[in-house]
Request: fold
Amino acid sequence: MKLKGFLAGLAGGAVAAAVVVLLLVFVFDLGEVNKTIVQATAETPTVYSTPSSTTTGAQTPEQIYSTLSGGVVMVLSNFGTSGTDPLGQTQSAQALGTGFVVDKEGYILTNAHVVDESGQRASSVTVVFNKGGSETQRVPGQLVGVDVGSDVAVIKVDPGKVDLNPLPLGDSDEVAVGEPVVAIGNPLGYDFSITSGIVSATGRSLQAPNGQTIPNGIQTDAAINQGNSGGPLIDGEGKVIGINEQIASSGGGNDGLGFAVPINTAIRSLEQLKTNGKVQYAYMGVGLNTLTSDIAGMFNMKSQGGALVESVSPGGPSDKAGIKGGTRTVTVQGQQFVIGGDVIVKADNTEIKSADDLIAFLGTKKPGDTITVTVERDGKTQDLQVTLVERPSNL
Reply:
């Protein structure tokens, strides 16, 4: 995957000798909400909930739903008017997504694209709570902040108006491939539904609505469809490990390829949005690609992996630190690489094997931090000091 200035694009690939076209679909219903909603037939230290004795150990999907579904909400976003109908009546542009409560103060996590459509913020938000059976309670929500770069948004409701059931948050760095998970949400308007599956893969690079890369994404085969956006992906111990965000599909529906923003990324956004109303990202000012072993062998590079520096922003942090960009473009197996520049193989004490590794590392830093970057240049390694700045708003 090629990354320019930490903006990610999608690269196609051949699967079993056949060309497969996959569409990335943000799992958010942008249709009208005023339709028939089919109800389910089955009857201070930190800002987030910590696991209690009732949410530890392996649980069945039934137990997880019984314990946690009260903390999962439907998010109805109003984007103003969308013109008039054939009879001249004004139509409201509304949309439906999912969210979940994270503390007793009334804070709710969801996806940014649930409340922000192509830069247009929702004019109002309504939060619908599941009170059991077909009973629901609607309360107004306040939009605290939006982090489009990680596709995370924070909503707040008045804790005095509704009983809150915060969901315990897990550690997405500890997620293992093959472990059981469930997703609770409002797929296609079928409110407060649960689906189950496993973690299919970790370390996926997800594309945020603004094109930026979200590292360490979680892939699952738990059924996810439009309306699931912003809902929790929950592990077998009843802890939230991700926010369901998008699917890869050949036809726009569920093909067993669902993706979630890791909860550790969401927590970082939550903390900053609560404090500052916005999220700051550290910026190096480089265009990157992943150095593959094929490229390394073809051009006699010492390192067999790392973040290949293809370009350096003039006057940016990396330029000031002396990091060098590429000098010529080559095409290998249909993909272009700009070689001749530095290869970043370590950042502080973290080994860097790919461009995504470096992006994930920077996600743990803040503007003003100085990091030690180890680069390979002309077969030799050297350490350079890079002082990070805030990522420009246009990136």
User: Anything to note?
Assistant: Confidence is low (pLDDT under 50) at residues 1-21, 30-47, 50-55. The radius of gyration is 22 Å. The longest helix spans residues 263-276. The chain has two domains: 21-279, 281-390.
